[in-house]
Request: fold
Amino acid sequence: MSIPHEVRASVAVTQEQHFCGDLPLAAMPRLSEALADDAQSVSVDLMADTRSGWPRLHGSLSGTLQLQCLRCDRVYAWPLNAQLDLRLVESEADEDSDSIGSADPYWARADRLPLRELVEEEVLLALPMLPRCETCENAVLAALPAPGVEPVAKRENPFAALKQQLKAKQDQGSGPTE
Reply:
C-alpha cells in the first residue's frame, strides 16, 4: 500500500485507518539532503485511533539509511528503528493537557494530517547528530576516559595561576612590619 501525502485527521482516527507501506527516500527532499544515497525506502507502519482515549497516530518507521561519516567521509549503513506516538491536537488547551502521557503533541491543523511530511520529520529527528561509521565511533569511544577512572590531571588555568601569584605578592607586601 502506498502512503498518501495527506489525509483528514478526523476520518483517519474515526475509521482507525492503518497506513502501511514503503516510502521512497527520494520522495522526501529535506531528508535526501542529509543522506549519502536516497535510493532506498523507509518502511512505514502507522495506525490512527482513539483507543487511548484521545486521537492518536502511532507506529514505527524502519529501514537502512546510507549516511556519510563526518570523521572519515566513508559512506555506511545506519539502521533506522523509530517509534512514533503522537497525540493529535487542535488547540493549545489540548496540547497543554496533562492527559497526553508519553505521547508527543502534534497539531492537526485544519483537520489535515500530512503523512509523508510527518514521516520525513520523524526520520530527520531520528538521525544521529554526528554521523560516524562504526570504526570512527569506536575510536572516539576508546579516547574517552573509562567510567569511574579519574581523567588525566587538568592543566591549571593560566589566569587563575596569575591571580594566585598576585594575591601571594599582595599578602607578602601587606604583612606585619617590625
Q: What stands out?
A: The mean pLDDT is 86. The two ends are 97 Å apart (CA to CA).
